[in-house]
Design a protein that fits this description.
It contains three helices and three strands, in the order H-E-E-H-H-E. The protein is an alpha+beta fold. The protein has one domain (about 1-75): 2-Layer Sandwich (GMP Synthetase, Chain A, domain 3), CATH 3.30.300.20. Strands 1-2-3 form a three-stranded mixed beta sheet. Strand 1 (about 20-25) and strand 2 form a beta hairpin.
Length: about 80
């Protein structure tokens, strides 16, 4: 699942080297945090959050196939 989010994110951004995904597991729940360069935040979130919500939907489907639950948080760059 982490690889899925990395692949999608790197395809969207101008600077793929700045894409970092952190994974935390708690039983059957997986929480992913996505960090990208400040300039690429708009590309990852999309107008009205459409891109981010689409990535969350794909993540939930991938997790359900493995019998897990997953969430995605897009973290503000520092």
């Amino acid at each position: 699942m982490k690889e899925l989010i990395e692949y999608i994110s790197r395809s969207l951004v101008d600077d793929p080297t700045q894409v970092h995904v952190r994974e935390a597991r708690d039983g059957s729940h997986v929480r992913l945090e996505l960090r990208v360069a400040k300039e690429d935040m708009g590309r990852v979130i999309g107008k009205g959050g459409r891109v981010a919500n689409s990535m969350r939907l794909l993540l939930r489907v991938a997790a359900a196939r493995e019998g897990q639950q997953a969430t995605l948080d897009v973290v503000e760059p520092r």
